[in-house]
Design a protein that fits this description.
The complex is a heterodimer of chains A (204) and B (383). Chain A is an alpha/beta fold. In chain A, 32% of the residues lie in helices and 23% in strands. By secondary structure, chain B is an alpha/beta fold. Chain B has an 8-stranded mixed sheet, sandwiched between helices. In chain B, helix 2 (158-169) links the parallel strand 9 and strand 10. Classes of the chains: A alpha/beta (204), B alpha/beta (383). At the A-B interface, helix 3 and strand 3 of A face helix 9, strand 12 and helix 10 of B.
Chain lengths: 204, 383
């Protein structure tokens, strides 16, 4: 994927990144986002990625990639080591999202998380018909999906509340990048991909 | 022997020797008054001298990293899989320098060389050399060859320790640092293996306190045992199982101790015996000490990140999943320290069953990641 045809959520969230920030991208894939941010926002930082072919692609693209399984946690990163810790379309494939989210916010000042919304009306409709949802945002069959922790916008927000995580901003889009009045009004029903900006709640 | 030289080999190569008459002050407090370094080069240095790569060798390695010395050679250089035209270290693009380190036994000044003071071989009187000393001598060789800054310093195992030390000791003299299957220091277990290897040699009756040359003998049994032990630690349990299993050479048990019955015994004996013919016990002792002593963080409250603070290079770090001699966790420590300094680093943890030896072997992900990194360097210098 060339930087001109960024995945929808990537383009959106790069607007949230301050120039010259130090970032960590969890599950960075082929490094598209980091390369884009380096060019557009002069960011520095690293991507973590488990897939060997993606690791090679990152190296070829000049993206700093650290081969690593996110399920092993982030314990060897220090507190506040990064301005932003990002995780795009990876949350649903993580073994313990409830442990990883606080870790993201321990090592980063802010977190950015995107995931496919399992509460989208098409998913609900397919479930009503008795089948697991398959869509543009959820392209896998139940038996071959890497996604083990699907959630809806409301589920995610409830978890944030439980973990004392503050939601700074939320956006929903379709896989074409677009948002609409409908999506903004009924995000959990009409939004296909959720994009959240989060941070630790200040201790009271 | 090769019937013909493969097209992707650097072909026939001839080692060269550089003599240094300036004394070299060593970590141990002693000084080498003069010394030789033997080295090989592959490829051509470009006009602005920007395409030079330095290859640092491991414990039993030497300057002969690629190609053949003659058509009678049974095997090519030790990193033939990775150095040559079109290979990850592409000699069409890079000028590659590979030397035998000080203390070696393949042509650089070491225990087998004549001590000008006595006219006899140094033997046990050769000073203990450290990784830092090696880097110091490698810098001088680079200057001799007209190389102001290496495009990359590259090494596996003990060689990776040298490239890491380069990045700390001479941060302006390299742009990239490739550290493969290495560690920033040995573990107690690593040192323990080295100690058993040393004791095997030191306690061999033929060792004669290191002056075996004068007795026209070599501590064959000790060196052989040391090498056999080393080989066990270079392979993984899985690799040994796959290679030898419990296979018997004669298909039956012989109920005795003399013959090598299991294939694995035969392999280790062969490796040990052939090593005796090509290596020196005093050099082996020195190399194990250089390994044991390496610990750049020790001067910085054991904080590797602080030790690496002067580094400026960009890094590629690779490890292999089944390597238990220098496990991936050791490489991760290096990556972690680099990342704390916000240095550019990529890390590939390569799925491989071959153990520590994997860094010499053709493994698709390793070739792909290593090549991708080297191509990036080539692009920077328009090679």
């Amino acid at each position: 994927m060339s930087p001109n045809h960024l995945r929808t959520d990537l383009e959106l969230l790069s607007n949230w990144i301050q120039p010259s920030s130090h970032v960590l991208d969890l599950g960075c894939g082929d490094g598209t986002l980091l390369e884009h941010l380096r060019q557009q926002r002069q960011v520095t930082g690293y991507g973590l990625e488990i897939d060997p072919e993606n690791v090679t692609r990152c190296i070829a693209a000049g993206v700093n990639v650290i081969q690593r399984d996110l399920d092993e946690g982030l314990s060897d990163f220090k507190d506040n080591a990064f301005d932003y810790v990002m995780m795009t379309q990876t949350l649903q494939a993580i073994r313990c999202p409830d442990q990883l989210l606080p870790e993201m916010l321990r090592i980063g000042r802010e977190g950015i998380v995107t995931f496919p919304n399992f509460g989208h009306w098409l998913a609900r409709l397919q479930l009503l018909r008795g089948r697991m949802p398959v869509s543009r945002a959820l392209p896998y069959q139940w038996y071959d999906t890497p996604n083990i922790h699907h959630c809806t916008l409301r589920d995610f927000e409830a978890l944030c509340q439980k973990l004392n995580i503050q939601i700074l901003e939320c956006m929903v889009v379709d896989p074409e990048h677009k948002s609409s009045w409908g999506m903004r009004t009924f995000p959990n029903l009409l939004g296909e991909i959720a994009v959240y900006r989060i941070q630790r709640c200040l201790e009271t | 022997m090769p019937e013909s030289i493969p097209e992707n080999s650097v072909g026939l190569v001839k080692p060269q020797t550089a003599h240094f008459a300036q004394p070299l002050a060593l970590d141990c407090g002693r000084t080498l008054a003069a010394y030789d370094l033997i080295y090989e080069t592959y490829g051509k240095l470009n006009a602005d001298g920007s395409n030079a790569l330095l290859i640092c060798h491991a414990l039993s390695g030497d300057h002969h990293a690629a190609g053949y010395h003659s058509m009678l050679d049974r095997k090519p250089g030790w990193w033939e899989n990775y150095i040559g035209p079109g290979k990850p270290i592409d000699t069409n693009q890079f000028f590659v320098v590979s030397l035998n380190n000080l203390g070696g036994c393949k042509g650089s000044t070491g225990p087998t060389s004549l001590d000008p003071k006595t006219g006899k071989a140094y033997g046990p009187d050769f000073p203990i050399i450290t990784v830092r000393d090696w880097v110091e001598s490698q810098v001088l060789l680079g200057e001799r060859l007209g190389i102001k800054q290496w495009a990359a310093v590259i090494g596996g195992s003990l060689g990776g320790m040298q490239s890491l030390q380069w990045s700390i000791q001479y941060p302006d003299k390299l742009r990239h640092c490739v550290v493969i299957a290495a560690a920033s220091k040995l573990s107690a277990q690593n040192i323990a293996f080295n100690e058993v290897a040393r004791q095997a040699m030191l306690r061999d009756p033929e060792f004669h306190e290191g002056r075996y040359y004068e007795h026209n003998t070599v501590p064959k049994r000790g060196l052989m045992l040391a090498r056999m032990l080393g080989h066990i630690t270079y392979l993984s349990d899985d690799a040994m199982r796959a290679k030898f299993g419990r296979e018997l050479r004669e298909g039956k048990l012989n109920f005795g101790f003399d013959a090598a019955e299991f294939q694995v015994e035969s392999y280790l004996r062969y490796q040990g015996e052939s090593f005796v013919d090509r290596f020196d016990a005093n050099t082996y002792l020195l190399m194990t000490k250089a390994l044991d002593y390496f610990d750049p963080a020790s001067d910085y409250e054991d904080d590797l990140a602080k030790a690496l603070a002067p580094a400026k290079a960009q890094f590629l770090v690779c490890s292999f999943t089944s390597d238990w001699r220098f496990a991936p966790a050791r490489s991760r420590e290096i990556v972690h320290a680099l990342q704390q300094n916000r240095l550019a680093v990529s890390y590939a943890e390569i799925e491989a069953h071959q153990g520590h030896d994997a860094f010499l072997i053709k493994i698709p992900h390793y070739i792909a990641a290593f090549s991708a990194y080297m191509q990036r360097i080539a692009k920077e210098i328009n090679a």
